[in-house]
Amino acid sequence: MNPLVSIHNRVFGLVETAGDWLLPLFARFTFAAVLLVYYWNSGLTKLGDGIFGLFSPSIGAYSQIFPKQLEAVGYDVSQLGMFHWAVVMAGTYAEFILPLLIVIGLFTRLAALGMIGFVVVQSLTDVYGHGATDLATLGAWFDNQASGVIMDQRLFWVFTLSLLVIKGAGALSLDALLRGRTQAAMA
């Protein structure tokens, strides 16, 4: 029995060591493959027309982020305040910047933490702002369905992002490059 345990420990010790640099890389790849274009396309829908659209969000941006408030003012964006504009602009920029940082592996832990917050706010907005409370969309944990957009799918998103918060970007990242340069400069 001892030789079997020894072989097991040796093999899975190597797997664990490889996992320390493979898991963050795979988590970043998964994020890029599944969510990068999703968030960038979502961000594009929030930009206004022309070059000044970077500072003047579309009405769609307000309807996605503040649906009830926009309806309450008769869809007249000019009646919403600076707070609404700032939140819409921050959310729009976050949809471009945070995914990019994760994919290139720069400030990955902070970017992933920001994306977790973004997913939570997005989910709460879907439920309370847009009324996405039907079981097919909302989903439920520990049921026999894995297709709920909010509870099921977004749990996987948050898990992937949590892995990046805990492990960092891994060896193949700008974070690792900067860490190596910083350590070399300190030596």
Total number of helices? 8
Main sheet specs? none
What distance separates the N and C termini?
Answer: 47 Å
Could you tell me the number of beta strands?
0
SSE string: HHHHHHHH
**What's the domain count?**
1
Q: Could you say which structural class the secondary elements and strand pairing correspond to?
A: mainly alpha
The average pLDDT is: 92
Q: In percent, how helical is the residue content?
A: over 70%
* Percent in strands: under 5%
Radius of gyration: 21 Å
As residue ranges, the low-confidence spans are none
Shape: flat
Keywords: Membrane, Transmembrane, Transmembrane helix
Membrane topology: Multi-pass membrane protein
Main location: membrane
InterPro entries: DoxX
Summary, kept brief:
By secondary structure, this protein is mainly alpha-helical.
Task: Give structural notes.
The chain crosses the membrane at residues 21-40, 82-103, 110-129, 155-178. It is a multi-pass membrane protein. With 187 residues, the chain is mostly helical. It starts with a helix and ends with a helix. Helices cover 74% and strands 0% of the residues. It has helices spanning 2-46, 59-65, 67-72, 82-104, 108-129, 135-138, 149-167, 174-186. The protein has one domain.
